[in-house]
Structures are given as structure tokens and as C-alpha cells.
Amino acid sequence: MKLHEYQAKELLAAYGAPVPENYVASSGAEAADAARKLGGEAVVKAQVHAGGRGKAGGVKVAASPEEAAQIAESLIGSTLVTLQTGPAGAPVHKVLVERTMEIERELYLSVATDGSRRRPVVIASASGGMEIEEVAQTEPEKVLTEPVDPVIGFRAFQGRRLAARLGLPAAQTRPFSALVEACCRAYDEKDATMIEINPLVLTAGGELLALDAKISLDDDALFRHPAEAGLRDASQDDPLEAQAAEAGIAYVKLDGDIGCMVNGAGLAMATMDIVQFAGAKPANFLDVGGGAGEEKISRAILLMLSDPNVEKALVNIFGGILRCDVAARGVVDAYGKADRRPPLVARMLGTNADEGKEVLARSGLNARMADTLQEAAAAIKE
């Protein structure tokens, strides 16, 4: 789950991370009041779950409260299209009004999990304000990392080492180390999957401030963080993904035309591979899990079929706890309720596979059965 910039800054500030003075506004009048509190001049930032806002016109400097109101009114209610949102863009409901400052240096700082090391890692770079992926490709020597021991945590000497390699003034070594430690504690205690500050700025007055902040939280751990779970902004998600999240279904919309439903993430990846092998593209990642019942199966299929891009459906079930006959009845129920009934390819193996195939055979659906992935690929091609 992604947080907005203002939410991320509130969370980091609670852990002691320094952030610029800022106010959230939902109207032009509120933006003007915020600018007055900041001395008149302010930066107005559209709040969307995407980077690249500045290039898309979502970050503007206002020289007066009146101009802040005008900028806010032009942004709120609009759809901001950036490189990360895609052509559909993201709706803007709020803006962040923040004080301006004289920036001396821009740095990059983040905390993420390194799968190869099986632990969090702090990533830092002197090339702040740029995409870290681009820096890693063009100037990999500028990307610095420090692994974080999951038991001991981030240590002060690691902060000093990073500060020295970044070329920070001696006076900023301790504040920088404290900032990184705060990010690591927030990452651990809030079950985050990523905390990114880009840029982390050093002002002309010698302050280190998180000028921008992004935080993503682990969806599977939100039950432990009810306060943070309430921060979800469903308007920023794809409508189908938002519906799936409410139903407890793992669904990610893709840009293909073959709807896929499976029980198990590994099987889902294999199914998407076989769709690609067939020369087609999957329209979604959809995993109902191993313990789904008929109702959940039906809801998942209805969700998949509501995507107008789906021209053919592929159901790939390996029966275990989820019996194939249960899955088949859920599929038949969904097709009976759906407005669209694209051709169906079904592969069922495992518990009650024969019973599941019989349910589909007697349903009257335009369904073709496959026993292997190769047969499924052939059926998709037809």
C-alpha cells in the first residue's frame, strides 16, 4: 500500500526525521491560508501515488497566497499524467503546501529489502533528484549501500561511513546518521517495503530535510497497523484492483487480453509465462489462494470478466485444499451472472479434477479443457 507524500512525511516526522513545514489543502482557500502561514511564498505539490510530478506540472512555486490558491484550484479535481501513471493518469484530490528553501545539495536516500542478502539495505547517493535506477545504470559507483542487521539494526558507524562517502560536512554527520536510523526504525516497525527520500536536501543554512518522501507498506501486514491501513487512498488504485483488495483477492491489472485465474502465486507466474509463450499477453495477475470457496471464486471471475480487454479466459487450478469441483462451480456461477462470456480454457489437476471437468462440461459454457500447459497454450492460440 502506497502513502501520499504528506502521509509519508507525517510518519517519518513521528520517528524524528526532519521535514519542511507543510500543510495539506483540499481547496484553493486552504492553500492560500497555508501559504500565509509560511510567509506568503510556498511550493504547491499535487498529491498522487506517482513520481515525475514536477515534469508533469504537478509541482509549482507560488509567490503569494493568491497564486497558491490559483495553483491549488487548477490541480485539485484534475487528473495528473506522469511517466509513472501511464496515459490514464491519477486523480488529484489534495495538494501539499510547503515552505520554500535555498538548496545547497540534493541527495538520495532509501531503505528497501535486498532479497539476495535477506535483510533491509540502506541505499544512498550524492545524485539526489534523479531516478536511482538511472544512476545505477550510468554511474553505479555513485550508489552506496549499507546492509542493516535485522537483529541489531542500523548502527551509528554505518551512518558516519555513509556521510563521509557522500561528502557531507562534519557538522551534518550526526544528523544524517540519526535520520537514516529513524528511517530504518520506521521501516521495521511499520512493516514497510520501501521508504524513499528523493531528494534529501542540505539547505544553505545547514539543515538536512526530507524534501520528498515515498513509503510503501506491506499489504499482508496491515492487520497489525490499523491506523496506517486507514490511510489507503483507493482513488489512486485501478478500480478493479481496489475492488479485489476489498474482497481479499490478489489481483493486478495488466495490459493484455487473456484473463488468468489460478490458485497459487507460483502457478500464476507459470500461467502468465504460458500465455506469453502462446503469443498472447495476460490481462491480469489473479491468485485466489489455496483456501478459496465457491463465492470467492465467483467473485474473482466476475472481477476478471469486468475488464473489457479480456477476450479469452484461462483458469488453471491445481486441486489441493481448493478442490477442482469447487472451483468449477464458482466459475459456472460467475459466467451465469456476467454480462460478458468470453471463451474459456480450463486446466484442472489434483483433488476432484474429474468432477470439476464434469461440472464445466455440463454447464453449457464455451469451454475447452486442457490437461497440460502445452494444451492450454494451443487452446489460447485458437
Write a structural description.
The structure is a single chain. The chain is an alpha+beta fold and 382 residues long. The chain has three domains: 1-20 and 102-237, 2-Layer Sandwich (D-amino Acid Aminotransferase, Chain A, domain 1), CATH 3.30.470.20; 21-100, ATP-grasp fold, A domain (Dna Ligase, domain 1, 2-Layer Sandwich); 238-381, Rossmann fold, CATH 3.40.50.261. It contains 13 helices and 18 strands. Strands 7, 8, 9, 10, 11 and 12 form a six-stranded antiparallel β-sheet that branches. A four-stranded antiparallel β-sheet has the order 1-6-2-3, covered by helices on one side. Helix 2 packs antiparallel against helix 3, helix 8 runs antiparallel to helix 10 and helix 9 packs across helix 13. It is elongated. The two termini are 38 Å apart. The model has no long low-confidence stretch (mean pLDDT 92).
